[in-house]
Design brief:
Blueprint: H1 20-47, E1 55-60, H2 67-70, H3 79-82, E2 87-89, E3 96-98, H4 102-106, E4 112-117, H5 127-131, H6 146-154, E5 164-167, E6 192-193, H7 214-234, H8 239-255, H9 257-262, H10 270-276, E7 280-283, E8 289-290, H11 294-304, E9 308-312, H12 324-349, E10 356-361, E11 365-366, E12 378-379, E13 383-389, E14 396-398, E15 400-401, E16 408-410, H13 415-425, E17 435-436, E18 442-443
Helix pairs in contact: 1-8, 7-8
Organism: Gemmata massiliana
InterPro entries: Alkaline_phosphatase_core_sf, DUF1501, TAT_signal
Protein name: DUF1501 domain-containing protein
């Protein structure tokens, strides 16, 4: 996994301060991962592959957002179910959502709500929202994330920008910071990680590769060139010369200013940034910080060429403390409302709404009945998701829950169906994409019976 703007390393190990393990991560990625990327670029050039720049922004709400306080209110239910919030009308007749989302309500024609998402594993874990599958001992570290499948199948849209990019903050609950990995597709397709932990955050003014400055990187490039020169002396066919252009293209990702510029919000119009709100870099306990402007960074990344951008936002595990569910909701619902509508407005203003799909979701829903602390506990039986863009049919609700929002009453939707939809939006037929693991077993991105959500077509 590549990590931009990484944390500083203590002295020790190699002469540049990296220990052996870090060298294998950074140097091994440079000499291995970036050598794998040239092979991919060379293969694409040879076959004449061209791909359109479709993208997905996956916004993960770690901790389990309360579905019936957000998108599926039950005003006629008993008080211990309906909670403290009231529904409001939206721009689309017949659709109501929580009063703390007035901006989304006014833009409801640009959103679709899924109220019948089923099949959650019930774990406090981003894994299912990254892969479409529950985490098991068999697939842990084995199954590629959505972004990794896209990276392997389509490659980079721009040689200076990785196809699969992560804005997922490492969290105290480590599974809330899980952004997926390359699995059996290889480390070169793992997300390019752009944010650090509590101490580092995002440092667009200090471009490093796992603590390796560009000066040190250039030293290593010089070392690589030395190996290449030696290889050329014994390479009768001259194939090393043919790889030069692809090595340079791979190195562009590390040395080009394009990726750095994409995360540099000083280059963004201040009036546009203002619409997203103000960042709060403080981490919410064991969750992520309230970095509302990362929604803008995500848009800038897909503009720059990223195909998949994954991010996490604050902490949604609210069932402890007296009434904490509603206290936290009053704080975080308006932030999400403002940031996600600013993102969708930007995509429409730039003519990107047909090419960029956006999904907002968490790992499960919340109990319909309030607990003895006036909060909601874990409820994997039902949850919701918010979709936008991607050329999908907007301004609708898909599925419904029963009277108390306990279970799906109609049109249950699975994670596999959502990922089938996202692959379709990317221009990929997951049934035609077959890759083999280290044991030679064939795999497809999703299950054979999973189909794109027909209501979105």
């Amino acid at each position: 996994m590549l990590s931009l703007f990484g944390e500083p390393h203590a002295r020790g190990g190699f002469c540049d301060g990296l220990n052996r393990r870090d060298f294998l991560t950074a140097g091994g990625t440079l000499f291995g991962g970036c050598l794998a990327l040239p092979h991919l670029l060379a293969a694409e050039a040879k076959t004449g592959i061209t791909t359109s720049h479709k993208s997905v922004i996956n916004i993960y709400l770690p901790g389990g957002p309360p579905h019936l306080d957000m998108w599926d209110l039950k005003p006629d239910a008993p008080v211990e179910v309906r909670g403290e919030f009231n529904p409001i009308k939206t721009k689309v007749t017949g659709i109501q959502i929580c009063e703390l989302f007035p901006r989304i309500a006014q833009m409801m024609d640009k959103f679709t709500i899924i109220r019948s998402l089923v099949g959650s594993s019930g774990d406090h874990d981003a894994y299912q929202c990254m892969t479409g599958r529950p985490r098991t001992p068999a697939n842990q570290g084995h199954w590629p994330s959505f972004g990794s499948w896209v990276s392997k199948s389509q490659g980079p849209a721009d040689p200076a920008v990785p196809a699969n990019v992560s804005l997922m903050y490492p969290c105290g609950e480590k599974r809330w910071g899980y952004h997926g990995d390359g699995g059996f597709l290889g480390v070169q397709h793992a997300p390019f990680h752009l944010v650090g932990g509590r101490e580092t955050g995002m440092k667009s003014d200090n471009l490093t590769l796992k603590g390796v400055s560009l000066d040190r990187l250039n030293d290593r490039v010089g070392l690589l060139k030395g190996f290449d020169d030696l290889d050329r002396k014994i390479d009768a066919k001259g194939t090393m010369d043919g790889m030069d252009s692809f090595n340079r293209q791979a190195l562009d990702i590390l040395t080009s200013s394009k990726l750095k510029d994409a995360v540099d919000l000083s280059k963004e119009n201040p009036k546009v940034l203002e619409r997203y709100g103000v960042d709060d870099p403080a981490f919410e306990r064991d969750g992520a910080p309230r970095m509302v402007r990362n929604f803008c960074v995500a848009r800038r990344l897909v503009e720059a060429g990223a195909r998949v951008v994954t991010m996490n936002f604050t902490r949604w595990d609210w069932h402890g403390g007296d009434g904490k569910n509603f206290v936290q909701a009053r704080k975080d619902f308006p932030l999400l409302d403002r940031a996600v509508t600013a993102l969708i407005e930007d995509l429409h203003d730039r003519g990107m709404d047909k090419d960029v799909s956006v999904i907002v979701w968490g790992e499960f829903g919340r109990t319909p009945k309030l607990n003895n602390m006036a909060s909601r506990d874990h409820w994997p039986q039902l949850s919701c998701a918010l979709l936008a863009g991607g050329g999908m049919k907007m301004g609708q609700v898909i599925g419904s829950s029963n009277r108390l929002a306990e279970r799906a009453a109609s049109r249950p939707v699975t994670h596999q169906e959502i990922f089938a939809t996202l692959y379709k939006n990317m221009g990929l037929d997951p049934n035609a994409v077959r890759e083999y693991d280290a044991n030679g077993r064939p795999h497809f991105p999703i299950d054979a019976d999973a189909q794109p959500i027909r209501e979105l077509a």
